[in-house]
Each structure stands twice: as C-alpha cells, then as structure tokens.
Design brief:
Blueprint (H helix, E strand, L loop, with lengths): L1 H16 L4 E9 L4 E2 L7 E2 L2 E2 L7 E2 L3 E6 L6 E5 L15 E8 L9 E9 L28 E6 L5 E5 L5 E4 L12 E2 L13 E5 L11 H10 L3 E3 L1 E4 L5 E3 L4 E5 L5 E4 L14 E5 L2 E7 L5 H5 L8 H4 L12 H15 L4 E2 L2 E2 L2 H8 L3 H11 L10 E3 L3 H14 L5 E5 L7 H5 L12 H7 L5 E4 L14 H7 L3 E2 L19 H11 L3 E4 L2 H12 L2 E2 L5 H4 L15 E6 L5 E6 L10 E8 L4 E9 L6 E7 L4 E7 L10 E11 L5 E8 L3 E2 L12 E2 L6 E8 L2 E6 L17 E8 L18
Parallel strand pairs: 14-15, 14-28, 15-22, 16-23, 24-25, 25-26, 26-27
Antiparallel strand pairs: 1-42, 2-5, 3-4, 6-7, 7-8, 8-9, 10-11, 11-12, 13-29, 16-17, 18-19, 18-21, 20-21, 30-31, 31-32, 32-33, 34-35, 35-36, 36-37, 38-39, 40-41, 41-42
The chain binds SN-glycerol-3-phosphate (G3P) and calcium ion.
C-alpha cells in the first residue's frame, strides 16, 4: 500500500513537472486574529456605526510588500480594512514590520513575527478634501480615506503608496507623514493619432441619424451633442449660392416618376413639376430635381425630408428649410457667442466636375469666396474635402493663394471599385485604390493635410485593423474615415450591435477623427479617451459632489501594482482593471518619473482570458517585471492565480507586453508537504486576492495573500482566512539584477 502511494506521488510529480515550473520551498502563516495596538475597530457596517467588533486594530490583510530598509525582514502594507470604504472608517492605514522564518521541512513550522508599525497620517493637512479624522492633530488616515494597494520605497527613503479610490499616488516620509497632496492619474490613453492630438468628431451631415440631414436643426443638435466639426455637403443653386445637400439631385425619380430617394419635398410641389430632368452625374444618367435648376428663393420654399425613412422614420419631415452655407456659419457663430465653444466646419465640394459642366460654376471658388465673405477662414476650424483630386490641387495652388487663405484640405478616398470623377472624365482609368499606396499618400501630402477614407480602408470587412492609418501617418496625413453609424445594419457582426465598439477600434487604430451620423455617440466614445483623468467611482470629486462626470475606471481597479524601477528614478504603477475605452483585458502600466514628477504610459499588460485583475507588480531587472494575475474566485471555484514575467522591451503584435508564465499558484509542487493544505504533493493557493509579490533572489519569489480580514472562503466556507506566505522556487532562474528589489532597502 505504501509503495503504491509513493509510486502514485512520483507519477503525479512526473506528470506535473512538465506543466509546472515552480516549487514551494518555504511556507509560513499568520493567524487571522492578529491585532496591533490602537483604537477599537470594526464598528462600521455599510456606513452605519454600531458596536466595535475588535478591541484594537487588525494587522491584516496585506496588499503590498517590500524589504524593510531598517534591517532584516519585510514591510507589509495593510489594505484598507474591512473590505469596503463604508465599513473601514475606524481602520488605520499602516505598514507593519514583519519577520518571516519559513518552514523548509515538514518537521518545522514557519514563524511570522509582527513587530512595530508605521502609521500613515496627514498632520500637515496635505489632503485637500475632508478626511475621516479631519479635526484631530495627527489626522490618522483610515480605510475610508484611501484604499492602499501597493508601495515602493524611494532611494531617499520616502514611501510611495498606490491607492485605488482615486486612483492616487501618495507620498509619505519614512515614518508615514504625508508629504504632498495626493497625485491623481492622468488619462494617458495613448491613442496613436498623427501628433498625439485628441481625435475630432465630425457630425456627418449634422446629427443625421436623429434629424433630417443637412438642416440647421441637425447641425444644432450635433453641436449640442459635442461634435467638434459639422459637415455640410455643398451644392450650388441656379443663382450661385452654396447650400447644404448631400447631392445636387435633391429628389431622385424612377422612370415612371416615383421618388426613390429624396432630401427635400420638391416632388410634392406641383409648381415645380416640370423641373425634373435627366442629367449625367459623374457619367451616369440620373432622373430627378437638381439644385442648380432652382434659385435660392425657390429652394427656400421646400422642406427637408428624411433620406432613409425606412430606417429613421418621417417624424421630422416637412419642418426644416434647406440651409445656405452662410446660415450654417451664422449658427456656428451664434453657438460661439453664447457658449464660447469654437465648433469647426468640414465642407465638401460635391461633384466639382459636374457643377462646372452642368452649371458653369467653380464650386471650389464659390466656397472660398463664401468663407472669406463670412470671415470664417481660421485654419483650425475648417477642413475642405473632395472626392475629386483636381479641385483640391486647384484650391491649393491657385484659389486659396489668390484669396489669401490657407485652409487644410482633405482628399476623400472612396471604395476601390470607384474612381475620382475628374480622373475618369480625363480618360484616366485608375480607381481610388491608386490613392492608397505609400507613394500616392506622399503625393497627397503635397496638397492636402489629410485623407478621408471609406472606413473599410481602416478596418476591413472581416473586422481586421489594416495598416492604412500608420502608412498615412508616415506620409504626414491626418486620417478621418467615414461613415460611422449606430444602426446594426451598418455594423460588422463582431461588434454585436455596439456602434461604440467600432468607433473604439478605429480610435485605437489611430484615426485622427471620424465622420458619424450620431455625433452624441462619437463624442461619448472620444470622451472616454480624452477626459483628463482616470477616476474610479470612489474618486473624491464624486464623493464630495464636486463633479458629475462619470468614472472611467471600475471600482477596486487602481494601483494594485506599484514598484520602484531598479534605477531608482521612477515608479511603475499597474492599474488593476481596464480603463473605459481600452480593449477588454488590457491594463495600463504607468510610469511616474520621480525627478520630473511626470506620468507617462509605459505600455499595456494583457490579462489572460481567465484573468480578471492583477494583484501586484515586482521588478526583476531594469526591463523585466513579475505580475500576480488572478480571477475573482476563491476556494473550490478558484482557477487562475498565476505569476507572469513580462518584458518592457518586447511587445506582441497588438502592442501588449510579451509575457511568460513563471508560477501557477494553483499548481505548485510541494514534495515536502511544507503547507498543511498540500494534497498529493500539490499545493494550491485559492484566495480571491493575492496581493504581495517580491523577488528574493534569482530563483526565489515571495508571495502572500490578502486575507481580507475577517473574510472566509479560501480554505473553506467556515474557515477564517489566514495570511499565507509562500517562498516559491523557480525551475529557471530569473535574470535578477543586483539592484532590483534591493535599491529600495538602501537609504541614501
Ligand atoms: O465626405 C465624407 C463623407 O461624407 C462621405 O461622403 O458625402 O457621400 O456621405 P458622403
Ligand atoms: Ca460628405
């Protein structure tokens, strides 16, 4: 029987050896009910104060660890107390000095000895909002003030603590005195726009998803929704006035006279019955009513109708006039006068070749004349776009210089089966595909500031991001694709009817803006990336009612991982959860330069599909870090508790750090049965939170759980969780730099 057991264990160990890369080489635990001196605690429950449950201060759970710079042993950071802000107002934030002696054989138990503590406090009133102990001289900080999740010790001996209520960085003296106001977290979305500028939302024909397109009402709603630019497509009247219509043909008729598409109610007007004509529009016969056959006065008698009534209804038909460009400029000016907001115009010269042929007018000249007359020539507020090439070149080389204006131009690029009509009219057989090569993009940059591509140039019909944006950026061109629409019929299946997903993909691809029929949606999505700060729902601005802005980081998603870079010059801070707008499962790694006191985005860490959060971050050397990754489960439900190594210098194709599994904490070898819970030579660590990680040497890491005192569940529903300390031996050594993990122990 004994032989069978030994064989089984050996077989099990053999089977596991290929899958595991780590062994428990030391173990110790601290019983749950461990207290330190201090006031009674545990009186708060969901914001209501009752009887204190504990006579003093619980020592645990622990959310961060470093070597103790004052000697042997470690400093462990207490978490924020009793699990939530509204029951932790009497839990004092501390770092505890802890001496650890691991069990290294089954015969001897490990020892954990808790010594003195450093109490975090704000006697100099650096926190600019009200704290729990606001009036006391010491102003001891509590778990209702900050949720402290990780810390680092700077070369000067001061303490940097990562919080997740802000999230904030907190800077303390070595003895726990807050040295400066909490430092917030800038929203470094890292969108790869051409010059790092914020993307713009272009209201395509106004808010055309919600009102008939190209009406003052559609433009007004677009501006209120937060559009940066409104887009008038421009056509000419018989008397040479520019008005906003999608096409010169304002109602298309079938051969038997039925309306097949219309943007105005002209076909219902008996007085204009004889105006319908067949004309060649860009080489194709089209039967209908044409703007250039009506005076402005006649067009003003018409009313706009919905172009897509089956999709968007007819609720607003017959209410709004056809606006002139001058009226649209007046609207923009009115908004500016009332609100100070400087909305821009993004006019399109519609069918320049046709306008010359059919009406004998130069639409590009008319546009510049109108903009000059209306004194709307600020290059920061106008983009002129065209599907043709020749008129843009004429604008650049002749019309604008002659008028003394210099506005940015945008070359529109339609689908590859279509062609710029001026090319076609001149016998040039090339299509829009010819405008997308690297050479062509460079040539476009000679006359235009940007390109406006059909969106499938950016994201193909399989939902894959192409290299178009980066190639256009390489040529120095802005990229403003079209057209983003909320209706499911315009969305690829992968978006699962979520139009914001499409916008986010385009933004992550680096577009500098986009045209959308739904500017409210566009502005909301862009806003996720451009709000100045990353904020959790517990950010003080919300708690104090200062701001009504929405949080863009889930609760309990802040600086769980915080550590000093081995060169001692900066802090690396890894957010525990995903910022709104980022790809699901991707976490921002921020760097705070201690000298310049500036944040930068160091990169993105991708969780495994089973991973829901990170627990800690520890440096190995100047470019490699370890991360604790976990799911949100404990006990038998726990599956994913792992340590990964990632490299700051090595990226996956999606831009996230390459990473390697170092230790599966649910599956560690424990041949000596150092831990009481080990079964069959395998140790597992099924706590919901595991928040302490430190590299001890090239082959050994220290890991400990946060027991969320007085929680249960890790080792059984009725068992109060203890703090377990694991010394984990790695099969393959880390490239551990002498400074990493030690510099913080050296006071200079
Ligand atoms: O102008 C770019 C975008 O508007 C696409 O063209 O006018 O046909 O909708 P349009
Ligand atoms: Ca357009």
């Amino acid at each position: 029987m004994k032989l069978t057991c030994v064989r089984l264990t050996a077989l099990l160990a053999l089977a596991l050896s290929s899958a595991q890369a780590a062994t428990l080489v030391g173990y110790a635990e601290l019983k749950a009910d461990t207290f330190a001196a201090g006031p009674a605690s545990g009186a708060w429950n969901a914001g209501l104060r009752g009887e204190a449950r504990f006579p003093s201060q619980p020592v645990q759970g622990f959310s961060g660890v470093q070597r103790d710079p004052s000697g042997q042993g470690f400093l462990f950071l207490s978490d924020n107390g009793f699990g939530a802000r509204n029951n932790s107002a009497d839990y004092l934030l501390r770092l505890h000095r802890v001496a650890l002696t691991p069990a290294t054989t089954a015969r001897r138990a490990g020892q954990v000895s808790v010594g003195s503590f450093i109490e975090l406090r704000d006697p100099d009133r650096k926190v600019p909002w009200q704290i729990v102990n606001e009036a006391s001289p010491e102003r001891r900080l509590t778990g209702a003030d900050f949720d402290v999740e990780g810390f680092a010790i700077a070369p000067d001996g001061t303490l940097w603590v990562g919080d997740e209520f802000g999230p904030y960085l907190l800077h303390f003296s070595a003895d726990g005195r807050l040295l400066e106001a909490p430092i917030g977290t800038p929203n470094l979305a890292g969108l790869p726009t051409l010059r790092g500028q914020s993307p713009v939302v272009v209201a395509h024909r106004g808010s055309s998803g919600t009102r008939p397109e190209h009406t003052l009402e559609a433009y007004r709603i677009a501006i209120e929704a937060g559009a940066d630019f409104i887009e008038p497509d421009l056509v000419v009247t018989r008397d040479g006035v520019l008005v906003a219509r999608h096409e010169p043909v304002i109602a298309v008729l079938s051969a038997d006279g039925r309306v097949t598409e219309a943007t105005a109610d002209v076909a219902t007007r008996p007085e204009f019955k004889d105006r319908a004509r067949v004309k060649k529009l860009d080489g194709k016969d089209v039967y209908g009513y044409w703007a250039e056959d009506f005076t402005l006065a006649e067009l003003k008698t018409l009313r706009a109708v919905e172009r897509l009534p089956q999709l968007r209804g007819r609720a607003y038909d017959g209410r709004f006039e056809i606006p002139t460009l001058a009226e649209i400029i007046a609207l923009v000016r009115d908004v500016e006068a009332r609100t100070g907001r400087k909305v821009g115009l993004y006019p399109e010269t519609k069918h320049p070749t046709f306008v010359t042929q059919a009406a004998g007018m130069n639409i590009s000249q008319l546009l510049i004349d109108t903009l000059k007359k209306e004194n709307f020539t600020d290059p920061a507020r106008v983009f002129i776009q065209s599907f043709e090439v020749g008129n843009l070149k004429e604008l650049r080389t002749r019309i604008m210089p002659a008028a003394g204006v210099n506005l940015p131009l945008v070359q529109l690029i339609s689908s590859p089966d279509e062609a710029p009509y001026d090319w076609t009219a001149a016998g040039d057989k090339r299509t829009y595909g010819a405008l997308t090569s690297d050479v062509a993009l460079k040539e476009i940059a000679g006359y235009a500031a940007g390109v406006g591509p059909y969106k499938r140039w950016i994201i193909d019909d399989q939902g894959r991001t192409t290299d178009f944006v980066s190639r256009a950026h390489d040529a120095g061109l802005l990229v403003h694709p079209w057209t983003f629409r909320n209706e499911p019929t315009y969305l690829l299946p992968d978006y699962q009817n979520d139009p914001e997903a499409e916008m986010r993909q385009a933004l992550r691809a680096g577009v500098d803006g986009f045209f959308t029929d739904f500017p409210a949606t566009g502005a909301r999505v862009v806003g996720q990336y451009t709000v100045p700060e990353v904020r959790s729902p517990q950010h003080h601005a919300y708690a104090q009612g200062v701001s009504s802005g929405a949080a863009n980081l889930p609760g309990s998603g802040g600086f769980e991982g915080l550590n000093l870079s081995p060169d001692g010059q900066g802090l690396y801070a890894l957010l525990e959860k995903t910022v709104a707008g980022d790809l699901p499962g991707q976490l921002r790694l921020m760097r705070f330069d201690l000298g310049r006191r500036q944040w930068t985005l160091a990169g993105r860490y991708a969780l495994e599909p089973a991973g829901e959060a990170i627990g800690d971050l520890a440096p190995v050397n100047d470019h490699e870090y370890l991360v604790l990754e976990r799911d949100n489960a404990s006990g038998e439900a726990a599956k994913h508790k792992r340590v990964y190594l990632f490299n700051l210098r090595e990226k996956n194709p999606d831009g996230t750090f390459k990473k390697t599994l170092i230790a599966d904490l649910m599956n560690l070898r424990d041949p000596q049965k150092l831990a009481p819970s080990t079964t069959g030579g395998v140790f597992s660590f099924p706590y919901v939170t595991i928040e302490n990680l430190l590299v001890l040497d090239a082959r050994t890491i220290l890991v400990a759980n946060d027991n969320n005192f007085p929680a249960t569940g890790g080792r059984g529903r009725e068992v109060r969780d203890v703090s377990e300390f694991l010394w984990i031996g790695l099969d393959a050594p880390l490239k551990f730099a002498a400074g990493a993990g030690h510099r913080s122990a050296v006071r200079k």
